[in-house]
Prior knowledge:
It is built from 4 helices and 10 strands, in the order αβββββααβββββα. The chain is of the alpha+beta class. It has 2 domains: 47-121, CATH 2.40.50; 161-302, no CATH class. The protein has a 5-stranded antiparallel β-sheet with strand order 3-2-1-4-5, with no helix packed on it. It has a 5-stranded antiparallel β-sheet with strand order 8-7-6-9-10, with no helix packed on it. Strand 4 (101-107) and strand 5 (110-116) form a beta hairpin. Helix 2 packs antiparallel against helix 3 (160-191) and helix 3 runs antiparallel to helix 4 (268-301). The longest helix has 43 residues, at 3-45.
Amino acid sequence: MSTTVRSTNRIRIGGLLGGIMMLIIGSGVLFFGLQLRTWTQNEIAAMLPAEGRVVDVVSRTTAAYDASFYPVVEFRTADGEVIRFESGTGGDPPEYRVGDAVRVYYDPQAPQSAMIDSWKRWAPPLALIGVGGVAALIGVIGVFNALAASLSWGWGALPGNVLRALMITVVGLGILFLGWQWYASRQSRVAAMLSTQGEVVDVVSRSTLSDGRTRTYLYPVVEFRTAEGEVIRFQGSSGSNPPEYRVGDTVRVRYDPHIPQSAVIDSWWDVLMPLIIVIAIGGSLTLVGIARLRSALAVLRQ
């Protein structure tokens, strides 16, 4: 057997083993992500919801001298006990301000271990599912490529342009999957809310510093009445400049009957815009990948 043949066989075997290893690692990460998501769902299902309010924002500095701001939240349990806790998730700039109303989940047996209901709670399992799924698919492609070369399936090893097209397609499909998971989770929460009519009673401005420039956005303050007759006032989560709403405008409001202070304006922008962005990015990558894959495979058939 010539040196060239031995070298080629070693490369093929290495590619096969590498693909198998990537498939095993990716499947393991994917499985752990799915298990973590199930564990998070079960944990939240065993907790009770409550209305909380941010009473303080504390800063903590890491060893690298990076500061993060953590909200301190106070809420009342079903038994009337007042609990105060510091959130385990911080940010810079701070995500919350003193006075903000937040949704809280707590264990009735250990209310001090309460947590803010935030999308960040779902970030670790979704990230693991995405990374594991992509890694597993890369492993499948690697195994397929090695087998194609070893078993002489017509075209031999897949050319680089085919592999790149498959990679783009896989990444696009992964983004679409994660986006759909986020949207389904959000819609399940929205479906549990009640709908009513509210009125814009104020428009407040908030300034942020971005790229060395100060940008000012205007946020609506909405007032509505719950089914029990309680008057609630809240600030919308989306701002714009010029303002989207004016004082006196009538808006549809969705609120959790257990925590009406966490109400949101029933706006297509808040509900659909994140999904549209994800579909645009993931769909574009998927379509580009499929188009390149078809083109590359057409060349191989010639």
